[in-house]
Each structure stands twice: as structure tokens, then as C-alpha cells.
Amino acid sequence: MIERFHQVVDAFLREAKAHKIRTLEELNRYWDIYLEDYYHQNAHEGIAEYYKSLGSPVPAEGITPLQEWNRDSRPLVLLHATVVAGAFLHHEERLVDKGACISFQGRKYETKPSLIGCRVGIAYDPSAPETVTVSYAGMEPFQAEPLKIGSFCDKAPALPESMRPVQAESSRFLDVLEKRHGENVSRRTDAISFGIYRKDGGPDV
């Protein structure tokens, strides 16, 4: 069924390209139309194959997604957004060290002292790995915070402002070269002007 849906999407994208759709809003609008008036209204091979595998008869014209949806009389069960989001999280295990911390992607995260020595589960979103949820049997899941190291623990304390190297505003070397270049250009210009003056038969100096 997934392969069939991919074929439907590819067919829609070909039509969208031919229609010269330019904006995302327009693309979404035509996709809704495509689903409601084409995909849901046409016989679906995957649905037919499912019923045939159960030994159930299938009408010659097949079964459309809309017919299958209307056939199911079971009430919808709406899941909470947090439950749905949790289904897409990545899950791993970590050992809580003597400092009540776990290591994750090169950083330390604080948990709880009662979990020292325990192996806990962690859940995270790969697109936002800085937020880590810790779970352990018999305990409400909680978010672990990155370990904050105070300035007094810093192995390399910052130097006072007066002792820090001053960032140069410009290169003295290039400043000197620029000045010398200007002087050389000026001398060459004067020499050329003087040479022309002599060739024109001007008086000797």
C-alpha cells in the first residue's frame, strides 16, 4: 500500500509540474483536491489485496479508500499530541554516574541522585537533541538539564580585560607600505613631468 501511495504522489507531482504551480499554498490546495476528488474516489489495489488475503469477496469494480473509510463503524480514538510526538522520538539507554549525570553526545546531563548507578532510558528528538527526557521504572519521566559548570570550576579562567591582548585596529606594516607607495608614485609623477618639460625645449634648471 505504501508503494501504491508513492506512485500516487509521484503522479500528482508530475501534474503539479505541468500545471506550473509556483507557491506552497497553491501546491497544498491542489494536493487536497487531488486526494478528495481522485485518490479517495478510485479503487485501491492494496485494499482489494487485503480482503482477498482474508478470503473475502471483492467487488469487480474494486474498493475505494472512501468506501473503506465509511465501512468502518468503529469510533475514532484521538491521541494526545504528546503521545504522537513520543512515537517519533529516538530512544537509548545510559548509565547514571556517581555525580548523578549521564553522558549524551559529548555533554553531561543532570538526573537525580536516587538514580546513581542505575541504567535509565532516554528519549530525544534528533532535530533538537539538547532536550533529553529520562525515564526509569517507578518514576515519572523528567527532562534532564545540561550540566552547568560554575566559573570557579573553570580550568582556564578568563583573563582580566587589562591583561587580554589588544586587537589591532589595522596593520602598521601595511600602513607604512601604503605611505611609501604614495610617496613613490608622487616621485615618479614628478620625474615624468620634468622629463617632458626638458624634451619640449624648456630652459635648463
Annotation keywords:
205 residues; alpha+beta; OB fold (Dihydrolipoamide Acetyltransferase, E2P); 6 helices
Short précis:
The protein contains six helices and six strands; from the N terminus they run αααααββββββα. It has helices spanning 2-18, 24-37, 45-53, 65-71, 81-86, 172-199, and strands spanning 90-95, 101-104, 107-110, 119-125, 128-136, 139-146.
β-sheet strand percentage: 15-25%
Radius of gyration: 38 Å
What's the end-to-end separation, in Å? 101 Å
Q: Identify low-pLDDT runs.
A: none
Quaternary structure: single chain
Describe the global form.
flat
Helix content: 25-40%
Q: How would you explain this protein's 3D organization?
A:
- With 205 residues, the chain is of the alpha+beta class.
- Strands 1-4-5-6-3-2 form a 6-stranded antiparallel sheet, with no helix packed on it.
- Helix content is 40%, strand content 19%.
- It is built from 6 helices and 6 strands.
- It has helices at residues 2-18, 24-37, 45-53, 65-71, 81-86, 172-199; strands spanning 90-95, 101-104, 107-110, 119-125, 128-136, 139-146.
- The protein is flat.
- Among the domains are: 2-71, no CATH class; 81-150, OB fold (Dihydrolipoamide Acetyltransferase, E2P) (Beta Barrel), CATH 2.40.50.
